[in-house]
Specification:
3 helices, 2 domains, about 0% strand
């Protein structure tokens, strides 16, 4: 019985190690949404600026949705200014 337990533990360890290596290889060779996630700290003054100066001129019922659209537009605008709007693959850079 002890031999069975040892064989089981060794097999589980081997399988775990093999799976971990396969996952790392997959992760390096696969593009996922997490590869392009942007973490952006929003300053309160930016939100207040949007709320007072921009929201009233847009056609959004919900201020938070409108603000997210505004941020998307501004980030895309800045990317176009910095890069000419073209990514390394020659296609236009867009935010989903």
């Amino acid at each position: 019985m002890a031999v069975s337990v040892i064989v089981f533990i060794v097999l589980i360890s081997w399988f775990k190690n093999k799976t971990k290596k396969a996952y790392k290889k997959w992760d390096l060779n696969t593009k996922t949404i997490a590869d392009y996630t942007l973490h952006y700290k929003i300053d309160e003054r930016l939100y207040e600026h949007y709320e007072k100066e921009i929201f009233q001129h847009e056609n959004h019922e919900n201020i938070n949705y409108g603000f997210s659209c505004y941020l998307k537009r501004e980030i895309e605008r800045l990317l176009r200014l910095k890069t000419g709007g073209v990514g390394t693959n020659g296609k236009e850079m867009r935010i989903a």
